[in-house]
Fold:
Amino acid sequence: MQPQTGETELESSFLEIYDRHAATMLRYLRIAVGEDAAEDICSDAFCSAWKAWPRYKGDRADTLPWLMRIARNRVIDRSRRRKAQPVDSLETHPDVASAGPVDPVNQLHLEAALAHLSKDDRDLLALRAAGLTHAEIGQLQKRREAAVKTAWARALGRIRPYLEVGP
Amino acid sequence: MTDERNNLDPELQRIQRLLETAAADGVDQDVLRARNRLLGFMHSPVAVRSRRGGPGLLVAFAILVPAVAAALLVASILGVFKPTAFTPAPAAPTPSVGQTPTAPQEALLVIAQRSTGNAGNVTLGAAPDTVLITKMDGSVVAKATFKPAERPRYANAATILPPQVQAAAGAAFYIDGDGVVRRLDRDGTVTRVASFVTTEPQHMTSFAVSPDGAKLLASVFTFGAPTGQELPGPLTVGPSATHLEYADAGGQTRVVSSGALPNTIGNFMVVGWDRQGPIAGTAIALATQAVISEGWDSPLYHVDMRGNTLDRIGGSDCVVGLLAEGGAMLCVGDTVHGPAQVRTRLGDVLYTLPSGSLPYDSAAISPAGDRVAIQSVGPPTAKNHIDGRGYIAGIPSDFYSVGWADGQTLFGYSGDINHPKLAMIDMSGGQPAPARNFPINGFYIGVILAQDRNPTEGPYATVAAAQGYIRDRGADGPLTSDPTWSATGTLHVLHAYRLGTADSPGDYYFFFVGGYPVGQLFFEQGQGSSVVDDTTFMISYLAAAANDPHCCLSGGRVSVRIRWDGSRLVSLDHIRGAYQCFGSACDVYPFGSSKANPPEPPAVVSPQPQPSALRFNSRGRVERSLV
Structure:
């Protein structure tokens, strides 16, 4: 069955914003939640956005803030759900050494270092790693650009000890 | 971005660059995969229905679905409907092909391919990009494609790519060019199991999978940029390193040791895993300027999870060429003078191959070690034979042996050395039958059985054992347990996620009584859980309203209590607006029963389910009905 013309246009316009912004969202999610979960959350976020697309009243030329809000909400939901369950990590192998000194070139160590941060710090670093400017983050977080810049530098400082090269 | 970064301390600039690199590395592939999922969602019946559905349809749905879902759910935990196995949904770059039924005891082959179709020079040519599980007649049971690894460049020596595809734990495991290991099961399911990623552009990885598929260990080698110089002299510039990395299947990867890569000869490398533990070679060549023979050609050791060597396999003088599945091995001495012997892991000699077998070109040892196909180095007319204890039989000189599917079936390549064909020789008549081409061309990897392992049904003495039961069913997220877990207690619940899927992770609750699994529940979005008393557990979840897609539930928070009444699980509260999984598999039983001794269908305490009112999607999940 051929889609109706209106539906085709709707799909085209939505896929266009996907193609424009999906990489940014994925870059954000890879730092915010880790590579393994990023793709799933990205898919989920765009599915939600697609559902809402016919009713979207915002600026269709600038949908990134809207999409990033959906993604950030998914990250927050995920974080809350994790907290709701008492986590008992059980499959830890006793023979495996802990992370130890961090090799800055190693993405796995980066993930371990990010785990030490507060969710706000991690969120901010993720947004910056995704390529958002301080001003864009300020718009998203409803903060002044200068405040974002300060918080970003502090967040980098807080992750620094976990990314220093070992002796 | 660059301007805003420039005001930072250099060290913080470096960290920012690191974050940007980690965020962007390989993201294009993820974008494509997520786009395919989105397209699937946009064109799915649920999505279309929610955008086109009229009021009449939605009213009918609102009335029927919660009641039916609740009835099905209660029925499922009571055993009327057999709950599905906790099996993972496909989470792969490509879907598998249509499947053909398999007989329970049938052996299946794991074969790797290149998209070019050429099966020549597996160790020194292009890496494979396709993995197949086939029947012995060549019909494809499951297939997955993946981004192939790029062989690192190393001046005028060719790097030797470790096996990119392996047969283990009843499945095919393969690693892509980004260092992600996935598992292809014979039902076509693809599961991401580990990620051995590196930010270095020139890298290659040798990984090993534990026999139960639950653990992975990998040697990750990174090479600096090639200088273009020839030996002697610096061949690379920049960091060249070796990392030993460990991962639980579906879990985080951890670097357990790191070091500089001194050269490309005589390296430590993980090569396998038997029931005793991981196996590594201590003199593995990573690059060569000459043709290499089949096998490891290195001392092999069992190692611990830190990479410390334990016992040497095959005795103190055994340089291992090949390992047999059943524990024997081909020791090749110094590879030139021999003698070539088949030994046990402890070093006892089972038999010695004829003199002149070494040095060899191709070789393959049967699973039990009772036969070795070996061709000594030489012109095309060099001796090519199958040896055993007091047994020798010639095979065609142009047959390059690579593996035994069983004690009677030898696989290898025949024909033009540059465009060889996968072929097999049948030994069931006692003598080698003429080689015949296998219907599919590619690299022979190994064998898995068509039949599952017998399901382990408990009792599980520890929470870790119970979690193993759940992981066997595809849980790839963190596992949690209620804090009162005890194998001798009454009702206990383990909570699991399934992350490696296009769907939401979901919340699975597995119920255990006395250490035995007695039922499972699934919710799209669990909100929490708590122990009420020794026999009662409460779960809160988000309910689905009439036109909610799976991603976005708006029916509000619901709490239900599940009680073990001494012989079965019952729900004390109405379970509404909850999708459930159903399927053909069944591995959850009321306490004390088993597949061999199935329980009597218990009385259903809720309205009878109406299967005709429901539709199941490809993952066995209840879809909205149009009735």
Notes: Residues 297 and 321 of chain B are 5 Å apart (CA to CA). Helices of chain B lie at 2-6, 10-24, 27-42, 45-52, 55-78, 463-472. The first helix of chain B runs from residue 2 to 6. The two ends of chain B are 54 Å apart (CA to CA).
